[in-house]
Amino acid sequence: MSDQIQRKMASGATWMVLFKLIERSIGLVSTLILARILSPSDFGVIAMALSFIFFAEQLAAFGFDIALIHNQSTTREHFDTAWTGNLLLGLSITLVMLLAAYPIAQFYKQPELVWVVCALALGPLISGAENIGVVAFRKELNFRKEFLFQLSRKALGFLIVVPMALIVRNYWALVTGILFSKLAATAISYLMHPYRPRFALSRVRELMVYSRWLLINNLIGFLKERTSDFFIGRLFGAGSLGTYNIAYEFAHLPSTELSAPINRALLPGFAKMADSEEVCQGYANALSMMAMLAVPCSAGLAVLAPYFVPAVLGTKWLAAVPLMQVLAFNGAVLMFHSPVCSVLLARGHPQMPVIANGLYVLLLLGLLTAVALGAQQLGVLGAAMAALLSSLLCTPVYLYMLRSKLSISPMVFLRAIARPVTASALMTVVLVWVLPSYDRSMSELVVAGWLLLGVGAGAVIYALALAALWVLAKMPSGPERVVFDHARKLAGNSKLSPPKKDM
C-alpha cells in the first residue's frame, strides 16, 4: 500500500509540475506582453485593490478542501457543507469589499481604486460557487484530471487578458482577465466533475475543528507574502508597488512555482501514510528534488537580472533589477518552508505552521517598520531586504517544529540541499566573474545575447558541478540518481549503472 501511495505521489507531483510549467509559461508570456503594453502604475493599481480583497479572502479561508482531503471518511454531507460554506463566505466577502471600496481608495490615495475594487469584489463570489466535487481529484490522487482542470482555467484567462490589453491599454484589461478566469474556472468545474452540490450545513462543526487552524494559517500565510504590498503602496505609490510586484513574480518563479505543485501532490499522500520513516523519506525526496531544480534557477536569475529585465521587460522596468536580485534568494529560502508546512498539515499538526508563519510575520512587520522609520532612504529595496532577512532568520524555527512533532532531524534538510546549494554557489561565482557589467548603452540585441549566453553557461556549469559532487558523495540515492537512471535508459547502457547506495 505504501509503495502505491509513493508512486501516486510521484505521479501527482509530475502532473502538477507539468501543469505549473505550462501555466507559468502562459503566465510568463502574458506578463511579458502586458509589461510592454502597460505601465508599472497599472500593475500597482491592481496590486492595491487585490491586497485588500486577498486579505478579506484569507479572513474567510477556512480551507474546507484541505479538511476534506485530510478526512479519510468523508460523506456527501461533508462535501455539500464545504460547498455551502464556500458560497456563503464568497458572498460575504463580496458585500464587505463593495462597502470598503471607498475607504481603500482613501488609504492608498488613489481615487480610481473605487471602481476597480468594486469590480474585483465579484471574484470571491464567483470562486465560492465553484463545484466542490473537483476536490476529489486531489483526494483520490487523480492528478491527471486536476492537471486538465487547472490548465483549462489558466488558458482561458490568457485568451481574454492579452486582447483586452491591446484594446484598452490600462489596468482594466487586468481586471477583465482576473474576473473571466474565475468565471471560466467555475464553469469548467461543473463540466469536469458530475458532482452537483446541495445547500447544507450539517457538517460545519466537524469541518471547522480542522479548518480553524487552516483559517489562521492562510491568513498569516497571506501576511507573510503580502505585508510588503500595504507598506510599499502606502509609502511609495502605485508605480513602486507595480515594480515590486513584477520583480516579486519573476524572482519567485523558479522556487515557489515548483514547490507549490509538488506540495499540492504531497499533502494528500502524506495524509495517507502510516509509517513515520516513510514520511521522513518522502519529505527528503521532495525537498531534494525542489532544491535541485529551483536553487540554481534562483541563483541564476539573481546574477542575470541586469540582462533579463531590459531584454525581456524593457528599460522602463530597470528599477526592478536590484529588487529581483534580492527577492530571488528570498524565494529560494521560502521554498524550503513550504514542504515543512505541507507535511505538518498532512500529519495532523495544523497549529505548527500557524505558529511558525506568525513569527515570520511579526519579524517582517518589525523590519518593515524599521525601514519606514529609520532607513526610508533604502526605499522599496529596503522592503525586499526585510523579506529576505525574515526568511533566513525564521528557517530554524520551521526545522525545529518538524523535529519536535515528526522527529525529522534538521540533518535531513541539510543533506537534501547541500549539493544543489554548493553547485549553485559555484555557478554564481563563475557567472559573476565571466559576464560584463550591464551598460544602458548596450543594444537590446547585445543584452539578449549576454542573457542567453549566461543561461546556457550557467546550466552547463551547474550540471557539471552537481554531477561531480554526486560522484564524490559515492552516488547516493536521490534526484541525481533519478536523472542518471533516466539518462542511462535513454542511452541504452543499462549495464553501466553503478550499484545503488543509500543516501
Q: Gap between N and C termini, in Å?
A: 23 Å
Number of helices: 18
The low-pLDDT segments are: none
What would you call the structural class? mainly alpha
- What's the alpha carbon Rg, rounded to whole Å? 23 Å
State the order of secondary-structure elements, H for helix, E for strand.
Answer: HHHHHHHHHHHHHHHHHH
Compact overview of the structure:
With 503 residues, the chain is mainly α.
Written account of the structure:
With 503 residues, this protein is mostly helical. The protein is 82% helix and 0% strand. The chain is built from 18 helices and no strands. The chain has helices at residues 2-37, 40-59, 64-70, 76-108, 113-120, 122-128, 135-139, 143-168, 172-192, 204-251, 253-272, 276-313, 320-346, 351-374, 380-406, 410-434, 444-472, 479-491.
Write the layout of secondary structure elements.
Layout: H1 2-37, H2 40-59, H3 64-70, H4 76-108, H5 113-120, H6 122-128, H7 135-139, H8 143-168, H9 172-192, H10 204-251, H11 253-272, H12 276-313, H13 320-346, H14 351-374, H15 380-406, H16 410-434, H17 444-472, H18 479-491
List descriptors.
mainly alpha
